[in-house]
Amino acid sequence: MMTNSQKCLLPQGGRAIVLSIKPKYAELILAGTKTVELRRMWAAEQVGMIVIYASSPVCRLVGRVNVQDVVRAAPSTLWKHSVQRGGGLTRRELFDYFSGKDAGYAVLLDDVVKFEKMIEPQAVIENFSAPQSFRYLSAAEIRKLEQKVRIRKAKQ
Question: Which of the ends of the chain has fewer CB neighbours closer than 10 A, N or C?
Answer without folding.
Answer: N
